[in-house]
Amino acid sequence: MDNERFYLEIINNIREGAYFTDQDRKILFWNKAAEEITGFKKEEILGKCCQETQLEHIDVEGNKICKSGCPLHFALLDGNDRRHDVFLKNSDKKRISVSIKTFPVKEDGEIVGAIEIFTPSSLVIYDEELITELANSAMNDRLTGIPNRRRTESFLDLRLREMVMYKFKVCVVFLDIDNFRDINNTFGHDVGDTVLKEISSSVTHMTRSTDLFGRWGGEEFIGVYAIKDGTDAALIGEKVRATIEKTQIRHGDLDLSVTASVGAVVAKEGDTIESVIKRADELMYISKEKGKNRVTSEVE
C-alpha cells in the first residue's frame, strides 16, 4: 500500500468527520464519520464545491459562512489553521453543533487544498427555526430589531479581513441623532423609542443586503459598506443623513423629524475594529461642532 492510500485509510476510519477539498473548494474526500455525523453519503457530496452542498454552515451568530467568511476558504488563501464552532445542516434538515478545525494541505510549499475536521460539540439536535430565533435574539437589538453592537463588530471584523485578502474598499459611517435628549424630555421616552425604531427601519431599507446598518448604543448607529472608490464614503454618509432627515415620526397630530451628525471613513490596511470606528467617531463629533445635521469625511 502506498503512503497516500495508507493515510487515507487512517483518516477514513477516525471518529471525527473529515473532508478534503482542492483549491476550488471541490470536495474530493468524505470519510465514514462525516457520513455518520451528517447523514450524507459520499456519493451525495463528492465532486461538489462545499458551498454547493446542503450542509449550509452557519456560525454561532447566525451568519451563513459558506459564501462569506468560510474558514476553509481563508485557510486556502493565507495558509493558516483555524478553529470554530458552527452549526451544520444534516440530511434530516436539522442543525448539529460541531467544532471544526480547518488547515491547508501543501505540496512542495504550495497550497493544493484544505482539510476540515469536525466533531459534534453537543448531543442536542436543533430545529432550523430555533437556531434562527436564538441567533436573532443574541445578535439583534431588542428595541429596533437591527444588528446590535456585537453583530456589528463581528461583521466589520469580517469585512476588514476580506478587505486585506480581496483588495476591495470598505467604509464605516458613524452617526449620532442630534438633540435626542430633548426629544425624550419633551415627548417622553416612548416617543424617543419610536424615533429610534423609525430611523432604523428607514436606513435599513436603503441598505444593501451585502452591507450592514446596526445600533451601536443609545442614539448612536454604525453602517458598514463595501465601496468601489474612496469618495463613495462621503456619498453614502450623505445618503444616510438625508434619509434620516426625511423620516417622519407620527405623534398625535404632529409629524416629528430628527437629524443626525455623521462621520464617514474608509478603512485602511492595518485598521482594527477599534481604530476605524474611533476615526469615524471623531469625525462625527466634528459634524456636531460645525452645527450638526452634516457629514464629515476623510479626504480621499
Describe this structure in words.
- The protein has 300 residues and is of the alpha+beta class.
- It has 2 domains: 3-135, Beta-Lactamase; 140-297, Reverse transcriptase/Diguanylate cyclase domain (Alpha-Beta Plaits, 2-Layer Sandwich), CATH 3.30.70.270.
- Helix content is 39%, strand content 30%.
- It has 10 helices and 13 strands.
- The strands form 3 sheets. The chain has a 6-stranded antiparallel sheet with strand order 2-1-6-5-4-3. Strands 8-9-7-12-13 form a 5-stranded mixed sheet, with helices on both faces.
- Strand 10 (249-251) and strand 11 (254-256) form a beta hairpin.
- It is elongated.
Describe the structure using short key phrases.
alpha+beta; Beta-Lactamase; elongated; Alpha-Beta Plaits; 300 residues; six-stranded antiparallel sheet; five-stranded mixed sheet; 10 helices; single chain
Derived from helix and strand composition plus strand pairing, the structural class reads alpha+beta
Order of helices and strands: HEEHHEHEEEHHEHHEEHEEEHE
Shape: elongated
Largest sheet: 6 strands, antiparallel
If you consult CATH, what is the topology of the largest domain? Alpha-Beta Plaits
Radius of gyration from the alpha-carbon trace, in angstroms: 23 Å
Q: Quick one: CATH class of the largest domain?
A: Alpha Beta
CATH architecture of the largest domain: 2-Layer Sandwich
Give the overall pLDDT as a whole number.
90
Provide the low-confidence segments as ranges: none
Query: How many helices in DSSP terms?
Result: 10
Through-space gap between termini: 61 Å
CATH homologous superfamily title of the largest domain: Reverse transcriptase/Diguanylate cyclase domain
| DSSP strand count | 13
Assembly state (oligomeric): single chain
Strand order of the largest sheet: 2-1-6-5-4-3
How many domains? The number is: 2
